[in-house]
Recover the amino acids of this structure.
């Protein structure tokens, strides 16, 4: 994962999926791509019944509140979805949201290094990436992330915000 910042905002991101030989990239205002082809989030309207992914930030033991929130969020979301998965690197899971391979991603805890570039991919692919409170995900709001197509994002964010 590689990303570039300008004035505190992500303006370029690259994620490489070595297993599938897929190179994802996005530039602010220019769209998101996989192997040179434009990608877009999927068109579902609710996370319920969907395939969602989650992760925990690195050094989770240094973020005790993230442990409790991860547990509570999994308990709240799991009964509502088809499956909750962890497909490895956070940045790759965000690329999967951007390309429509999965319906949503969420995570509690500070993981900006791994989420900043992926959040640009999601936004440039037509999705939303915010913190649980609804603020745009970025350097100033990186203690949680919810990323998904707009209606899915809102339904999942609303569930997580109740925790």
């Amino acid at each position: 994962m590689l990303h570039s910042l300008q004035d505190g905002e992500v303006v370029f991101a690259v994620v490489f999926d070595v297993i599938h030989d897929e190179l994802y990239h996005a530039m602010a205002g220019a769209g998101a791509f996989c192997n040179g082809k434009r990608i877009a989030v999927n068109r579902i309207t609710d996370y319920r019944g969907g395939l969602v992914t989650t992760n925990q930030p690195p050094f989770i033991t240094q973020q005790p509140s993230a442990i409790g929130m991860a547990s509570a969020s999994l308990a709240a979301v799991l009964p509502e979805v088809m499956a909750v998965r962890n497909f490895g690197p956070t940045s790759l899971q965000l690329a999967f949201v951007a390309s429509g391979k999965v319906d949503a991603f969420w995570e509690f805890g500070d993981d900006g290094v791994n989420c900043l570039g992926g959040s640009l991919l999601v936004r440039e692919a037509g999705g939303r990436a915010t913190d649980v409170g609804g603020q745009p995900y970025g350097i100033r709001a990186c203690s949680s992330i919810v990323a998904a197509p707009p209606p899915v994002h809102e339904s999942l964010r609303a569930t997580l915000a109740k925790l």
